[in-house]
Amino acid sequence: MLRESWRIALWLNRKSIDVLDFLMMKILGWRMWICKWIGRIKTKHNLPIYVPEREKEILKKKQAQAKRLGISEKFVRIAAKAVMSESKRIQSELVNA
């Protein structure tokens, strides 16, 4: 039995990752829903979708958080840029609709 305990541990950890991945998707979906509302506000008030200074500020903040949490800063920068890119795409669709 003990010789096979690694299989149980592996299965349990994989199930935990599955749950976390699902939660990340739910959170990203919620974030994109909020981005639509932000896009509506920006459209109504003729505000730009892309504000370079804000994006730089956000990336700097995310990289500092990554460092504190022991997560690769490069990975967090890539992930944050992907999320911001999708947010801008969603907001641009509202402007161009």
Whole-angstrom Rg: 19 Å
Low-confidence stretches: none
Distance N to C terminus: 62 Å
Number of beta-strand segments: 0
Indicate the structural class: mainly alpha
Strand percent estimate: under 5%
Specify the number of helices: 3
- Overall form: elongated
Overall pLDDT confidence: 94
- Biggest pleated-sheet summary: none
Order of helices and strands: HHH
The share of residues in helices is over 70%
Task: Please supply descriptive tags for the structure shown above.
97 residues, mainly alpha, 3 helices, elongated
Overview of the structural elements:
This protein is an all-alpha fold and 97 residues long. The protein has helices at residues 5-44, 52-69, 73-95. It is 84% helix and 0% strand. Helix 1 packs parallel to helix 3 (73-95) and helix 2 runs antiparallel to helix 3. It is elongated.
Layout of helices and strands, plus pairs?
Layout: H1 5-44, H2 52-69, H3 73-95
Helix pairs in contact: 1-3, 2-3
Short description:
The chain has 97 residues and is mostly helical. The protein contains three helices and no strands.
